[in-house]
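Checklist before submission:
- one chain only
- standard amino acids only
- sequence pasted in full

Submission:
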Amino acid sequence: MPGSCALSFHAQTPRWFTADGRSVVIMSGTTPIARVNLPYTVTGGVLHPRTQLLYVAMQANPYPPISTHLAVISATSVLTIMSAPGASFLVPHPESGDLYLGVYTGTQRLWILSGTERVASLPLDGPLHFIVYHPYSRLTYVASPNEMKILHGRSVSATLPVTETYEIAVDPDSERVYATHWIPDFITVLSRTEVITRIPFPHGYNPIDVIPSSGEIVGGAFFSQEIHIFSRELSRLTVISMPVRPHFIAATPSQWVYITGKEPDPGLSTDLWVLSRTTPVAEYPNGFGLGSLALSPDGKRLYALNAFEGTLYVLSGTGVLTVSHLVPWGPSILLPSERRIAVDAGTGWVYVAHPWVLLLWILQEDGWITWPLSAAVSTLFSDPVHGVVWGGASDRPWLLAITGTTVYTLPIGGESPLFWPPVREIAVDPERHYLYVRSSAQVAVFSLTSPITASFWLTTTGEVYPPRALTVQPANGLAYVGSGIGATGTVWILEGPARVASRTVEGVPVAIGADPASGWVYVALSGTRQVAVLTGTQWAFTVSLPFEPRRIWVSPWSRLAYVASDFQIAALEGPSVRKILTTGIFPRDMVFDPVARLAILSHEGDNRLVWIEERILDRRIWLPLIMKGP
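Returned file contents:
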């Protein structure tokens, strides 16, 4: 996903790299240790295992998500930025230090880079389908629509008429290569630069992989929803039927085989199968992508958005009333998941946004409408006090005020520093009428007035760089911003445009939640397994947890702070840990039912909704529901 994706991993250390808007964050385990700023939104990248250079693809234009430039980074220094239109399939040659990638410069070409220099540019007959390096033969296979080029280093050893290749798998213990195809009804078997045979096999979007050591070939027949397993001698060993279409196959050296599956509609991954060589041993049918939640003003309807699939579920209690597939949905969205759904407290209308589509989806009493926008929206925030839904632009320095189907634009002013979209988070002080906007680089402050269109920008501060979390404490009118890279971070405390105080903390503040009743402000500190608690501008105490904190929500009814890890939830009451629940994979969002006194939690990793009964939390009563679609 542009602006948010894991780029690459270091094989010998806990170091890895992730995209954050127009920058690359260097991580050590769960702790960010450095940041490299870039001029454009990051779309992908790879760390070269031999040279340790990080190659990062970027897009200069917000949409469509097509790479336009390539940066070469050594440690934290940008060595060069070059034009690389349509850069894709960044594949290192682990021995020579070269990098292969596809580009489109009027015609499709394969570039070979050595460090920062382009040392070769080879023509292709059409769009690049695949680049695969074979560690046994040390050859590189490059597939395009009507041919397959086989390279030895920088030179072409052979060009074969192998057409419409969908996927390539190599046998790590021999010179064999296997290719599936969109149109021809077979699997092509190659040895080095020669086609040695073809195995009859249904055509389609067929994944394939080879089990190390045994050499058995696992091929997915997409349209017939089957897994075919062949011996190294190419005899068919077994055929396994799947309830969904096979989408991706990964075989491990321990001979576990993982297969993801797709539903025919909307055609996104919803199943995970596990094989021990040729034997199925487990199925996980839940899918992933469930994220943002919202409640209707009367609390009788729950709205749950799966931004990966573009699906909105409407629930009453724990029953699913309707499932809507939003069209035209854009590229699938995964982490980080800003809140992309909001409910207008006055009308009850539901708004859904996509960060790369110039549309709002609006659910009214009589159904859905789509509304055109002048800027795509990355996050939504309901503001019942001022009677609007706020939208943060993803590709322009704008704040959008939405009332009904009317959208007003409020520019985020300032030239030093210039505000860099996308907007990641919005918070409002309902009594003092300040609005705070967080991007990946700055925090901007607005003064809200009546009418709302007369609201105006006050300031933009880059001092809090890079901001990672934002909340407002209504009890004292202060805004809290967490920032930092490395072993320590800072909690900045603002009152409108003025900085009131700052507190240095161990770890990086990645989430903040406020309890108006007690005045406590909870700060999740990544890398420490701790939550800091502040009162006003003062440090009150620290709570230790058995996991790394990722997110925080505070219940307005029970006053409990729910702190989420990757699979657990801790309920905090000030310095006390009331309960730790194992709820699901990747808790993503939480809302609170004011009538039933329930905390409702979504999980991105397994599409799970959990209802937590706050009044009898110690009895650990919760009801799971897996969101599967109609």
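Reviewer check: The chain has a mean pLDDT of 89.
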